[in-house]
Amino acid sequence: MKKVITILILSLTVSAQLWANNIAVFNIQDVVDSIDEGKKAKSAMETSMSDAQKKQKEFTELQTKFGKLQEEFGKMRLAWDKKVLEQKQNALIAMQKDLQSKAVELQKLDNELRKKELQYQAVIGKKIQEVIKKIASTGSYDLILEKLESGVHFSKPKMDITDLVIKEYNKVHKK
After folding, report:
1. What is the pLDDT of residue 11?
2. Which contacts (CB < 8 Å, 24+ apart) does range 146-151 have?
């Protein structure tokens, strides 16, 4: 019985070693950061984020202005005559409506940014997957893992094909 177990363990070890020769890993973030399409997508997202940050800053400034106007209204409303009081109330109401519309606008912008990011990820991810399949078939790989998502904590540098994926992607998806 011990011989059978020993032979079984030995055969599993040998087959695992043979199988391990056909495993590779790659870092998808490095690929996306290095390919032209990824750089363009990142640049477009940064531009969109910059615009969104400007709008957020304007919104915050408007909120601050509204808060000061509210505070002034609370302190001075008893001292103002009817006409001034009405003007200040109308200004507060108009500013509140403006704040509400800008808040909705910011939410829509945020949703658009998320949607745009997901679209970039989907398009680039699909193309990377096609490249990985091509590399797997031409390189006779049995298994190719993404380093970050698959939980790979260590792999020998010779198993890392990130540079090959980048090179192949740029070759296949040249514009």
Report:
1. 55
2. 146/25, 146/26, 146/27, 146/28, 147/25, 147/26, 147/27, 147/28, 148/27, 148/28, 148/29, 149/28, 150/25
pTM attached to this predicted model: 0.70
Give helix 82-138 / helix 162-172 axis angle, nearest 10°: 100
Helix and strand element counts for the chain (H, E): 5, 2
Mean pLDDT of 134-150: 87
State residue 152's pLDDT score: 78
Strands (E), the chain: 23-26, 143-146
Q: Check if the beta carbon of residue 165 is closer than 8 Å to that of residue 141.
A: no
Q: What are phi and psi of 153, to 5 degrees?
A: -95, -25
* Local structure of 24: helix, strand or coil: strand
Instruction: Please give the torsion angle defined by the CA atoms of residues 144, 158, 149 and 28, in that order, rounded to the nearest 10 degrees.
Output: -90
Nearest to 30 by CA among 130, 166, 168: 166
SS3 of 160, please?
strand
Lowest mean pLDDT among 27-36, 107-116, 139-148: 139-148
